[in-house]
Amino acid sequence: MSKKQITGQAMGHNGIINYEVDVQDNKIEDLKILKHSETSGIFNQVIDKLKQNIITEQSFNVDTISGATVMTQALLKSADKAVTDAGVDVQPVPKKKAPKTQNLRTDVLIIGGGEAGLVAGCRALTMGQKVILVEKNGYLGGATILNGSNVVGTGSDVAAQIFDNNHDTPEMLAQDVARESLETNYPALTDLMVHNIGPAIDFISKFADLHYQKAQTQTPEHSINRQIELPSASSYEFIQKVSKAFAAAGGQIMLDTRVEKLMLDNDKKLRGVIAAQKDQTVNIKARSVVLAAGGHGANQKMRGTESEGIDYYGPMTSTGDAYQFNGDLDLQTHDLGWYKLYPHGVEVEPGVAKLTTYASKQATDMGAIYVNSKGDRIVNESNVYTTFRNAILKQADKVAYLVMDERTWKKVYDLLILHDFTPEEIKSFFENKGKRPVFVKGSLESAAEQAGIVVDELVQTVKNYQGYVQDGHDHDFGRDPKYLHQFEGETFYIIEQRDRFATTLGGYSVDADNLQLVTTKNAPVANYFGAGEIIGGANGHDSMPSMMNTWGISSGYVAGAAASENAQRQATAGDDEANIVAIVGTNASKSYNRKLLYAMKELFETQVNFEICEIKDLPLFNEDDMDREPASVKALAAKIEAADGVVFGVPEYDHSIPAALKSAIEWLSCAEHPFKDKPVMIVGTSLGIQGTVRAQMNLRQILDSPGVDAKVMPGNEFMLPQAGNKFDENDHLNDDGSEHFLKQCFGHFLEGLELASKKTVTN
Question: What is the pTM of this model?
Fold first, then answer.
């Protein structure tokens, strides 16, 4: 037995990935990651899926993971070369041919696997609904995965225990939101958020076994200590535990599934979505849909001039896809130019930043100061984040510098490592002198020179500040004395600070009572609800720290309940979608007419329920057996009776319909009478040029006979000639003209069903 451990390196998105491939007897047994610099919350999900695909298929020629294409492609290419160079000959496992179209049905469909979507899905599950969640990326988390887990617990039992009943109220939280956003918030949505975050935190904590604790940082924007976080301080813990609980409760998660189009009926009612996977189309019908697809920060075309010069640190997949697939609905939007700006970021590549919020806050708590390139202080370093943000924006280069001593740097370093930086990455920042981001150390004069700051001015600024500390009074900005601390030692550290954003604050407009999406005419869109970043307004033009998570969790909680109640109402009233039974008119195992009906199912499944039924299991009709009606006949008759309409796919045998079909209709017009007044459409295809014309005429005569009494659709006969050339390898129609005519005929058939239904109601 031959066993090898093959090591290699790949260049990921953030740096080198060291890996090991374990091979035994030319078979891949494991892929181990030894070291990496990627975002852990994303990488941990992606690598597990990638490894599973590699081992299952015994090949590195597997699909990359959506949302992490650069990293997974580099790893696959490098590992493939390393294994080949090691002389290992791995034999791939033949791939199973996947169906080109998958049709699914659910009560509630969630679009988006971030915080809001997961909470909405969990809430719907607990209300008794079947739930499917689709996510376009190959991992869960959305923009949430890049942030901390900090949130407010106002009104929750969880917070009451943590803060020992600190008397926080929804009204106090709403006042803080309005004050900090300069009254730009939408009061009705703010009210929904502050009154639901407490129940939402209690709900999701119990559902997913989350153990919140007091957040290590209580920011001054909040008038009372109310911020909580998970023990890891990472949102990955939230996503991991909540998604696991969602799946355990029966929720279905579909990754790498990108919504491309909505299923709408003639009245613009939402019926579901059409989504794309790498190897197939997925049609998902749903009674209710929750849109939690995230924002549009990574879409440069959707961003206005107000975002120029501000770094982006959110997921590069936040491209605002929903604004494309919702195009047919005339949805109302608001404030698409609002962004949640933070002043704590370092530019790790042009236009892209990483957050340093926790580290920067720790630095200023210990006495660090903010200066500009001239060496002057620019802000009260203990003020609220919005003041920092505006101060940095006022600088000509939109950059500030955080100046600290070595004592402070040690604490800052620990927090950078905890929040998405690696030791190697930080080391490289210091080594790459003269390049962004600015990370320098040395004497004050040396550090200033390396950072490009006016040396003499910075020296004077620090001297003045040391005097303010000694006096116990900040003569420049009135900084709180408890944050005035002397710089210690002769070594200084200077790191850049840039405004950056990950999330957008505007988006689609909703009914504030239940988060139902509305059109530009303020009309609610049937069966469609929103949650999370894509539904903006609750926090106004600028949200306080912890409030993006607060909105995501509370809005998901409300939207999940509203979608569930809507789905339950539909289930109770009975779905108004047409039920079509399609009958294969032959007992032959191979039939082009069967192919035609399945092609119709794929074409029209988004509009109706299209069930294909066979007659091959029905016995030959015999009048002597009338008193012993076969169960198979009863079952088919019941389906036809319950259907809104019937489609026959009829072959032509000797200028007539097949004997098996004639026998089936005899059963269904003698023992049963399900066709009476039933709307019927006839289609057919043949190898010749006449396309079952005689068989269709024959079938019309039979269906019009006493005892059958069907209402056969007049005109619009669909006859497909030369069947051998009209289907591709996946049994789809490959003739555009024929497909167009088939859609036209079926459309007229559905119109006939609606007219018949209206006449019935009138009578």
Answer: 0.77
